[in-house]
From TrEMBL:
UniProt keyword Lipid metabolism, yes or no: no
Species annotation: Methanofollis fontis
Active site per database record: 173, 207, 511
Ranges where the Dockerin domain occurs: 1683-1752
UniProt keyword Protease present: yes
Family: Belongs to the peptidase S8 family.
Protein name per Swiss-Prot or TrEMBL: Dockerin domain-containing protein
Entry keywords, A to Z: Hydrolase, Protease, Serine protease
Any Pfam family the entry gives: CARDB
One GO MF term: carbohydrate binding
Length: 1756
């Protein structure tokens, strides 16, 4: 909406400076013209009759204007020459001086002359933002919808196939940015009446583009920080647009140009004109930014006249307003108006009659004081000089932002602008016009041309509510013949729309409401093109949500000057005119999945890009699509590698990209793009050398943070570890200091690895507000010390939102404790309470005798008006609440006529900075009537959530791993399995159905697998993950999932200047898919703390590999009293050395919260935290039971028992019991404006109308009884109407003294169900085996199945003649019974004890091809036919899981693999173990050993875990020497099914020798220096009678070579060196003499030919040893390895010289970075071999360079 005004000093206090009465409406004091002339509009007497056609209008104007122009020419030819002619209103625009225009006004045929007023846009752009990027791995169709479109039910019209297509909307404004993506190609016409630039549609202001977007903005894809989302902006997103630019870049323009734009719109076939351009006349005197000293008075005067026009009253005086605004500092008011007085005087120094403006509700500001004097109350003394007098009655100077006095005039509906708009209706064009933004000063503020009687004048409703926005102008129009304006209302606060240059903006104003109505008109015309403008207006008004003057909805059509006919409903208007035709076509939904597959550990130089193209509408992959891939580094100056792939039949495309050229230790970025969808990611390319300074410091310890009393002492204990993880024993220096003072500095000796220091601060002058002190050990940071000068508490009010009818009382609790309960203390203190109660928001919410007269423009008695308006500003209430033992309860009584109150709790000791802690603010609604949605269609969140959705979820995956203690990490298995589930959720009922027969595709970078879901909707995949540390998978199936919700912020638009922070509706429609990064099982480490009684606690630490292997650990442990996120000193400290499990019993010395913490040592020398637990000393708990069913209106006592860990009762503990709204977490506000909360209502989220806060103290037995007052039947109905179920939430807190027993939680603790009648409520339960056996006869027996019934209702069940039916279904088998006894409330009765027998086929098990176990269900239903009335039937069913399985018999032969012939029997044990979950029946096993027949052995029945052993000892001989033993249990599975038969058969081989086993061990990690030789002895250990041998030595020929092999202890050798280049040599001997002992059989001569860092394995293969009789001697060979290190080559140049000495010295002093521990560079430099780079290494290298050391750095 535009008008003749500007904002003078506050947006809530609008006054305009006018130059003179003739130039009314020129805000800047200029109307275009020369020094002597001004522009005027000459309106002729002969105006078109109603019903005149377009051609007749033009002809009539031409005919009548000719004679008038001739007369004007005779008076002033220059004026005639300047004339511009209009036809839509019979008028001329001329430029003339004052005398000329006075003569023109008297000409025959001239009705009147009026100034060509300049209008000014006054709807500010509150937010402008660019888009932001997103990163994600799927491109689902996510959407955003501005809230106002759903509020007027537009989406329901779109769903009926009507989006405004074929209708043309003209936006007469600042222009339209035709390039904005919101408009596509739909801007089909444009005319520039300001700059004459008609080359393309443009907007150099933004107002017009915003309005065009609100009317007809289409779908755009915007990039937010949550991803790419679709955003529909306009009410009629497929309507055509034309734009008439009539306002300049500053939003200013002449009325004559606006009329030209309207004429152009008609000539260009506009069906609807949206006109957010108008004027309202002010004449003002103001003073800005000044101060008044104590006792000083400001006087502002204004000359006030009568009507403005030449012939008659066109601009009628409405009121004089005077006021001031105080300056603001730091976001809140620094001064208060209490010591200021203000008086408005009419002419002759008469006190004006009127009242203070205090009806603006949420927009009311205590800084702004305004007094309004209506014309009707002062008409007898109007013309003359008015005076505003403001006096400072205080003792200090007051700073003002401004003060002003102004006269307001309103058109009577007969200006040229008004006539222009009225004539549009005769041409069949619907005109939609803004009412104006002056409603904050009350009635009579409709702007021109909203004053035109025949147009649709639109006011604005507030954010997410049907209350009038405080700025929205109010009628009536025309004092002589008053008529009601506005006609309609539409949302006008927090409106998101398009803005030039591809941006988006949020604006407030009736300008924003107007295009929303224009778009609705387009929908009506698109659905029914026969509608006339009168029919459109009438229908819109009849179908609107009718609103009373007090803002509440009413059923009947009754117009008023605040809301007209009410707020529009797009859906009802289009429906009433038969405009709902069919439905929209189903969307063609496609998605792109994928991203990079990158394993830096395996191949840091290769990235595999994956893209999967999917058609969700068809439920199938898309073949033949090109996916573009991009990989680049240097984000701001990128270097790209591009590739592409074409999708195959599975929709899959890949590309392998070499990134060798990319820098290491830097991020690189990837993109996969298809059809405008881009998936972005970033990865880190690591360095092969790693990082760090290469130095390992000992001792190892963990930092601790302490808090100490400034006048006391604390004890610190640090457990210290040595380099090997053992307890450290050397002395250390512990120091506590800051930059100026040392508080402790001593050398300490560890005791069992722990050092202890007590630091006394009482001897020092501690600045508790200063920086923390630093704790160091040997100069390394070991922690900090802060001082306990204050405790920070967090307050929480409950309920956060509630409903309390006017005149009623509600309890609001304030809980104050340390954050999250950690630290365990609470407070007792008085808190201030400030309540702002909004009693009215509308000026016409007055007594009928006052409001009606004022609305009609009649005189109102001054005293009556002041009395009536006196209570309309927000009522401020001040009080206190006493918080005792953590809880205070404030009893708040809702004032009469109050519709909302904001209750704020404030710590009186904290300084106020203009906003409140939202956690300590509660919003109480008097009624939800003004906030409930007045609509006939579901909201978008409701309708989207009502759609059926298919979901694909990864139920479970298994990727086994084993623990490697040597490598100190888990080793993943080569295969993994993944189970997926497909379900469909019914959007109406919420019923979940398993989807059988669905094809599921699983995509990885390696390929694609397909599977089909079974009857339970699941399918399982097996993946090859060999050599991988993780695996990214994408699973897709046919189906679409949908969801929608509301956000209280707009994504991607972080800066807002609106009077509110608007939210948005958002959601998605996307393919049924699941994305997951699979990772192998890994080790588990955790801590447990268990109370042992008598004040003792057991702290246990566990560390196990993924295969349950206990891990060997070294580490540290501390346990300390905990306070305010720090510890009060270390009470317990230990070093750790354990395997798998460690435990320590601690007995704390003080009460409070303790923190136990443990860390274990990593190979790189770091300590990794593996367990932390908090426990209270003494421990305490609160126990209670709440009835599950409660009768409406019933009082239910609940007993709470508070006891310590030893079971001793705790008296005087305070219990808080919060129910309903008080138990729920909800949004709140940080000031008095509750409007940002309103968007939750679109998701049907309202406060619970039931709220109860109960508190009490325990007695000597530790008990407190609090009584629930259940909601009444009427309150229950209100809860249901607001979307609540019969489940009532509750939450419990408990405080003992100043300690927390049970802290406040964000979620409620439980619920009880409301019952409307005294009825039973049956709940079944089952006791039965969870694991049952599939027997060999295919039977499945569930034995000892017990069924119980619990009555948790509100009445006893008394058996008469109606038995309770109980039905148990197992598979396809039903077992029913009846119970014919009484079941009192709260009691449980046994209804059935039976054995149920079914068969495998009943469970869908095919025993010829089965896989066990199979999960089945026992489905138990009580009262299945509902023959007995109950409170609730939803809990009559229970599903009891049963796993059908079989035994697992494992065969085992226990025998030594090698024996020495001795003549005695070798023990041979045959063992069968049942590893299954069920018992096995008796069976047999077949045993076979070399040289004997098969023996059948009986095996008895075995229970779970039981074993059966049979001994078959046998004397074994060296001839034949090798024996094969075989054992098979349950052959062919004849006696039992089994979960697997893989372990039923086992084979063992035993070797019998004459001699014991020998051994050969090659060295591991042997260091070889390049360029040297090395002699490697081959030693046979423990040889007995060795005579002959042969063996092959293997090596890496690129690292070493063998120059020869020399003989050893057993004689001459035969050596074959022919294969040295291939990496092996063969050698051996053959002789009759025998040798025994540890024998060096040969020496291998090695020449080191490789380079530093090379490695080689050293091995022996084909090793054979024999005695002189050629009997073989067994041997065990251990292979070795060697690494090549050029010791001393610190700079890596391949030689050792003085440069290496210098390099080490530079590293030691920090001029060069040290190599990373474990790297080749480090090992070659650390010649001292002490795991550190230091001066000693430089010294050794220098010694080597002068010949004092050999290449291995041994002393020569």
């Amino acid at each position: 909406m535009t008008r003749v005004c500007t904002r003078s000093f506050l947006t809530v206090f609008i006054l305009l400076v006018l130059v003179g009465s003739v130039a009314a409406g020129a805000p800047d004091g200029s109307v275009v013209g020369t020094d002597d002339t001004m522009p005027y509009i000459v309106v002729l007497t002969d105006q078109p009759d109603r019903g005149t056609t377009y051609s007749m209008m033009k002809a009539q104007a031409a005919a009548t204007q000719a004679s008038v122009l001739s007369s004007i020419s005779a008076i002033d030819s220059d004026a005639a020459q300047s004339a511009e002619q209009f036809w839509i209103v019979n008028a001329l625009r001329v430029e003339a001086d004052k005398s000329t225009i006075e003569r023109i006004a008297l000409l025959p045929g001239v009705d009147h002359v009026e100034p060509d007023m300049r209008v000014q846009v006054d709807d500010p752009v509150f937010e402008v933002s660019d888009t932001v990027d997103a990163q994600y791995m799927r491109s689902g169709d996510e959407f955003m919808l501005p809230w106002h479109l759903d509020w007027i039910e537009t989406p329901a019209v779109w769903d009926a196939g009507n989006m405004g297509e074929g209708v043309r909307i003209s936006v007469v404004d600042t222009g339209i940015d035709g390039t904005h993506p919101a408009f596509g190609e739909r801007v089909v016409g444009f005319a520039d009446f300001v700059n004459g630039d008609n080359t393309s549609a443009y907007d150099d202001n933004g107002h017009g583009t915003h309005c065009a977007g609100t009317a007809a903005g289409g779908e755009v894809m915007v990039s937010t920080y949550d991803g790419i989302q679709a955003l529909i902006l306009g009410t009629a997103p497929e309507a055509e647009l034309i734009g008439a630019k009539v306002l300049n870049s500053a939003g200013s323009g002449l009325t004559s140009d606006i009329i030209k734009g309207i004429e152009w719109s008609v000539e260009n076939d506009a069906d609807v004109i949206s006109l957010s351009v108008g004027s309202y006349a002010w004449d003002a005197n103001k003073q800005e930014y000044f101060s008044l000293a104590a006792g000083e008075t400001l006087n502002l005067t204004l000359e006030v006249g009568g009507n403005i026009a030449s012939n008659g009253g066109l601009l009628e005086p409405q009121f004089v307003v005077g006021g001031y605004a105080l300056q603001q500092e730091y976001g809140y008011n620094d001064a208060e108006p209490a010591n200021l007085s203000m008086t408005l005087y009419a002419p002759n120094n008469v006190t004006a009659t009127g009242g203070y403006i205090d009806w603006n509700g949420f927009d009311q500001s205590s800084d702004v004081v305004k007094f309004k004097a209506p014309y009707a109350s002062n008409s007898g003394n109007w013309n003359g000089v008015w005076l505003l007098q403001v006096t400072n009655n205080g003792n200090e100077s007051v700073m003002f932002e401004g003060a002003a006095i102004a006269e307001a005039r309103q058109s009577d509906g007969n200006t040229a602008y008004d006539l222009t708009l009225n004539n549009l209706a005769d041409l069949g064009v619907v005109a939609v016009v803004a009412a104006g933004n002056n409603g904050d000063v009350g009635t009579g503020t409709i702007g021109t041309p909203g004053t035109a009687e025949d147009v649709i004048t639109v006011g604005a409703t507030d954010y997410c509510m049907d209350y009038r926005a405080s700025f929205s102008s109010i009628g009536p129009v025309n004092r002589t013949n008053p008529y009601i304006k506005p006609d309609l209302m539409a949302p006008g606060v927090g409106i998101l729309s398009a803005y030039p240059n591809g941006q988006y903006a949020v604006m407030d104003g009736t300008s924003m409401a107007t295009p929303g109505v224009a778009g609705t008109v387009a929908l009506m015309l698109a659905g029914n093109d026969t509608l006339t403008p009168a029919q459109v207006k009438q229908t819109l008004m009849q179908t609107a949500v009718h609103i009373k003057e007090d803002g509440t909805a009413m059923a009947t059509y009754e117009e008023n000057n605040l809301y007209g006919a009410g707020r529009i409903s797009s859906y009802l208007a289009v429906e009433a005119t038969d405009g709902l035709h069919g439905t929209l076509p189903s969307p063609y939904l496609t998605e792109l999945f994928g991203g990079p597959s990158y394993d830096a550990d395996t191949d840091p130089n290769t990235v595999t890009m994956l893209g999967v193209c999917w058609n969700a509408t068809a439920g199938a992959p898309i073949e033949g699509e090109t996916v573009e891939f991009k990989v680049y580094y240097n984000y701001y100056n990128p270097v790209f590698i591009n590739a592409s792939g074409v999708t195959d039949a599975d929709g899959r495309a890949t590309a392998t990209i070499d990134i060798t050229s990319f820098p290491v230790n830097a991020y690189f970025y990837t993109e996969a793009t298809w059809q405008g969808r881009t998936l972005s990611s970033q990865k880190l390319k690591p360095s092969s050398e790693g990082g760090g300074n290469g130095y390992i410091y000992v001792p190892f310890f963990e930092s601790q943070s302490f808090i100490a009393p400034p006048d006391g002492a604390i004890t610190m204990r640090y457990p210290l570890l040595d380099v090997d993880g053992s307890a450290y024993s050397d002395t250390v220096q512990l120091k506590v200091a800051n930059s100026t003072t040392t508080f402790f500095d001593e050398t300490l000796t560890p005791v069992n690895g722990v050092v202890e220091a007590t630091v006394d601060f009482s001897k020092f002058n501690i600045n508790v507000y200063g920086s923390d002190l630093s704790v160091t050990i040997d100069g390394r940071r070991a922690g900090s010390v802060a001082f306990a000068y204050e405790v920070w508490y967090e307050g929480m009010s409950s309920p956060k939102q509630a409903i309390c009818p006017a005149g009623s009382t509600i309890d609001i609790a304030l809980q104050v404790a340390e954050p999250h309960g950690i630290g365990g203390t609470i407070t007792s203190k008085d808190y201030a309470v400030y309540v702002t109660a909004f009693t009215e928001t509308e000026i016409l919410s007055l007594p009928a005798e006052v409001g009606g007269a004022l609305a009609a423009g009649m005189p109102v008695d001054d005293a009556a008006l002041v009395e009536a308006t006196g209570g309309m500003e927000p009522e401020e209430i001040v009080g206190t609440v006493q918080v005792r033992n953590g809880i205070g309860v404030y009893q708040f009584t809702m004032p009469e006529d109050c519709y909302v109150a904001v209750v704020k709790f404030v710590d009186p000791d904290e300084e106020f900075y203009g906003s409140y802690d939202s956690y300590m603010v509660s919003v109480v609604y008097g009624s939800m009537s003004p906030w409930t949605l007045h609509r006939v269609t579901p909201t978008v969140p409701e309708s989207v959530e009502g759609l059926d959705s298919t979901y694909l979820v990864i139920m479970d995956y298994e990727w086994a791993a084993t623990w490697s203690q040597g490598d100190y990490h888990s080793v993943p298995a080569d295969t993994a399995s993944l189970t997926a589930s497909v379900i469909t959720v019914n959007g109406t009922t919420g019923e979940v159905t398993d989807d059988a027969g669905k094809t599921v595709r699983l995509y990885t970078a390696d390929g694609v697998q397909t599977n089909t879901t079974a009857a339970d909707g699941t399918c399982t995949f097996t993946l090859n993950v060999s050599g991988k540390a993780s695996e990214d998978v994408i699973l897709i199936t046919d189906g679409i999932s949908s969801s929608a919700w509301v956000l209280d912020y707009i994504q991607g638009y972080p800066v807002r200047f609106s009077r509110i922070d608007p939210g948005i509706i958002t959601g998605y429609q996307q393919t049924a898919a699941a994305l997951r990064c699979l990772e192998p099982a890994t080790e588990s480490r955790w801590m447990e703390v268990d109370y042992q009684g008598s004040g003792s606690y057991m702290v246990s630490l566990y560390s196990y590999g993924p295969d349950d292997t206990p891990i060997v650990e070294r580490g540290v442990f501390t346990a300390s009293p905990y306070f305010n996120w720090k510890t009060l000193g270390t009470e317990f400290a230990d070093t750790l050395a354990f395997t798998g499990t460690w435990a320590k019993n601690v007995t704390p010395s003080q009460n409070g919260t303790y923190e136990a913490h443990a860390s274990v040592l990593q190979p790189d020398g770091s300590l990794m935290g593996v367990g932390v637990s908090f426990f209270d000393v003494p421990g305490a708990c609160v126990s209670y039971t709440v009835k599950p069913d409660v009768l409406v209106g019933e009082t239910v006592p609940v007993t709470f028992t508070v006891a310590d860990s030893d079971g001793n009762p705790i008296s005087n503990a305070k219990v808080g019991f919060f129910l309903g709204a008080a138990a729920m977490d909800a949004s709140s506000t940080y000031n008095d404006d509750v409007r940002p909360l309103n968007i939750d209502h679109l998701a049907m989220e309202y406060p619970d109308p039931y709220s109860e806060v109960l508190t009490g103290y325990t007695d000597s037995s530790g008990r407190a009884t609090l009584t629930i007052h259940a909601p009444s039947a009427a309150l229950r109905e209100e809860r249901i109407m607001l979307g609540f179920s019969d489940n009532v939430p509750y939450k419990v807190v408990c405080y003992d003294g100043d300690e927390i027993v049970k802290s406040n939680s964000w979620y409620y603790d439980g619920t009880f169900r409301l019952a409307t009648a005294a009825l039973p409520d049956f709940v079944p339960s089952v006791s039965a085996p969870h694991v049952v056996k599939l027997n060999r006869d295919d039977s499945v027996k569930v034995n000892d199945l017990y069924l119980y019934i619990t009555n948790q209702g509100t009445a006893d069940f008394i058996y008469t003649d109606e038995e309770i039916v109980v039905r148990a279904a197992i598979g396809d088998k039903d077992q029913s019974t009846t119970y014919n006894g009484n079941i009192p409330m709260g009691e449980t009765k046994q209804a059935l004890h039976t054995n149920v027998e079914a068969y495998a086929s009943d469970y869908g098990i095919n025993t010829s091809d089965y896989h066990l176990p199979v999960d089945a269900k026992v489905n138990v239903t009580v009262n299945p036919d509902r023959t007995i009335d109950e409170i609730c039937y939803a809990n009559n069913n229970i599903v009891y899981p049963v796993r059908i399985t079989a035994p697992d018999l494992a065969a085992e032969i226990i025998v030594p693999p090698t024996v020495v012939q001795s003549g005695t029997a070798t023990p041979i044990a045959l063992v069968v173990t049942n590893q299954g979950e069920v018992a096995a029946v008796a069976t047999t096993m077949d045993y076979l050993i070399t040289g004997q027949a098969v023996e059948e052995i009986a095996v008895p029945a075995l229970g779970v875990g039981e074993s059966y052993t049979v001994w078959r000892n046998k004397t074994l001989l060296a001839d034949p020497g090798t024996y094969t033993l075989a054992l098979e249990v349950n052959p062919d599975g004849v006696t039992d099914y089994e979960t697997t038969f893989a372990n039923n058969r086992v084979t063992k081989t035993v070797h019998c020798y004459l001699h014991p086993t020998t051994s050969i061990e090659l060295p591991t990690d042997l260091v070889l220096v390049p360029g040297t030789t090395y002699d490697l002895p081959i030693v046979v250990g423990g040889a007995e009678n060795l005579a002959t041998f042969a063996m092959t030595f293997t090596f890496d020929p690129s690292a070493v070579t063998v120059t020869g092999v020399s003989a050893g202890d057993v004689g001459a050798l035969t050596v074959n060196l022919n294969h040295v280049d291939e990496g092996y040599v063969i050698f051996g001997n053959c002789q009759a003499e025998s040798f025994s002992g540890n024998l060096t059989v040969a020496t291998v001569h090695i020449s080191v030919i490789g380079s530093g860092g090379d490695e080689t394995a050293l091995g022996l293969v084909d090793v054979e040893l024999f005695d002189a009789d050629e009997y073989q001697i067994p041997v065990e060979v251990t292979d070795g390895s060697a690494v090549l290190l050029l010791y001393g080559d610190a700079n890596g140049d391949g030689s050792v010289n003085q440069a290496d000495t210098l390099r080490v010295l530079r590293e030691v002093v920090g001029l060069e970075s040290k190599p990373t521990v474990g790297t080749t560079s480090f090992l070659q430099t650390d010649v001292h071999e002490n795991r550190a780079i230091e001066v000693g290494d430089a010294m050794f290298i220098a010694q080597k360079n002068v010949g004092l050391r050999d290449p291995y750095f041994r002393i020569v």
